[in-house]
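All the exercises in this workshop are built on plain-text protein records. A learned vocabulary of local backbone shapes supplies the integers on the structure line. Once this layout is familiar, the rest of the handout is easier to follow. An example says more than a description, so a record of this kind follows:
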Amino acid sequence: MVSLRLTRGGKKNAPAYRIIATHKRSKRDGGFLEILGHYNPSENPVKFEYNKERYEHWIKTGAIPSDAVSQLVRGLYKYTPYNKGKAAVDNVVEKSEATPVAEAETTTAEAPTAE
């Protein structure tokens, strides 16, 4: 079974993540089938880029996204080292294979803020 999840990279106290397709039983930072995107909560504003076509392909073939990945795709994220609540991801970039990186669409996801 294939799952879509995050794998950690970056530096100490400055995490950066990749969104990957991997076998469900593989280790967090173990082997993977494909890199689908990147998520960097350490940047200001938070940066999240993913390939929408490949993400949908894996979902159609039966891959199960983790809770964190599904929330990122919807425009929410759970945790950053500096903000322990739900907040909107400022930069969501959906890349497609047909469109060069410079011409990729940029969409902004907004979420209700807790006050």
About this structure: The longest strand covers residues 2-11.
